[in-house]
Design brief:
2 domains; alpha+beta; about 130 residues; signal; two-stranded antiparallel ribbon; elongated
């Protein structure tokens, strides 16, 4: 019984804590009737004008709802209202070794080299070496 008492106290504390203010600013706080209207309009736009137009409509409705909440003072007006520029995808890392000028090697070979092992002793391993 004493073993479960701290767990019960933690669970009661979690259940008793009020919802965060951020939850009031989410799309989940939107009334069900308004969500249903947006969903039906999304379906209609998707069938008539395409996926991109329908997605743009939903995004615009979400931003408008957030601005309404911000005007009422329920949410901060600075976050989520600005459109963000899409960041370019990161370039894949080039695993080729670099030559003495700092550029990726054009010609590499595998050589057996003596390398340290986990146990402290030395061992042999194939290592990629630049042959420019």
């Amino acid at each position: 019984m004493q073993r479960f008492l701290p767990i019960a106290i933690i669970l009661l504390t979690i259940a008793a804590t009020p919802a965060k203010a951020a939850d009031a600013c989410s799309i989940d706080s939107m009334p069900a009737a308004r969500k249903h209207r947006i969903l039906s309009e999304y379906t209609r736009l998707k069938q008539t004008q395409g996926q991109a137009q329908a997605d743009a409509f939903v995004k615009q409705q979400g931003v408008a709802y957030y601005r309404e909440l911000a005007a009422k003072g329920l949410c901060s007006s600075s976050s989520n209202t600005t459109t963000r520029r899409a960041e370019p995808a990161p370039k894949p890392k080039d695993n080729r070794p670099l030559n003495r000028y700092g550029k990726p090697c054009r010609r590499t070979e595998l050589e057996n080299q003596n390398v340290p092992n986990v146990g402290g002793s030395m061992g042999w391993a194939l290592v990629q070496v630049c042959k420019d």
